[in-house]
Amino acid sequence: MLLCxxxxxxxxxxxxxxRDFGAGESGWAGLCFNPSQWSMAAVARSFCKSxxxxxxxxxxxxxxxxxxxxxxxxxxNFYGGSEGSVLAVAEGSQLTVWDLRIKENSGxxxxxxxxxxxxxxxxxxxxxxxxxxxxxxxxxxxxxxxxSVV
Length: 150
Known about the structure:
This protein is mostly beta strands. The protein has strands spanning about 30-35, 40-45, 50-55, 60-65, 70-75, 85-90, 95-100, 110-115, 120-125, 130-135, 140-145. It is about 0% helix and about 40% strand. Strand 3 (about 50-55) and strand 4 (about 60-65) form a beta hairpin. InterPro entries: WD40/YVTN_repeat-like_dom_sf, WD40_repeat_dom_sf. This is DH200=94 genomic scaffold, scaffold_7006.
């Protein structure tokens, strides 16, 4: 028999509702925590074409995507500075990289477009900063954003 016990670490827990109280969207498409700042989370909302960034239950920022985000991950910062400020997002048939410290282009620093119709469903990153993306075409593409080469 397996017994799972959930405890609130240091009496700290919180929950967040969608900013528009879920109007027009049945749920969230993806969620990831920032490994270097444990209280920060990013939430992908596919139908709204947006990503909301939270620190605990405080909304910090909304990123507007061109396609429907399905997967996201905080990654090592390859530009220098604080770790965890870079977010890789699978959205539609493209992979986007966002730097949360940048205001221009809403922080989008790379947009890698795939074939139209070949949806990207999963994204992950390595400690060295490379990004792997996979989707409907059943291939995995490894991208190094420091070199801007696929």
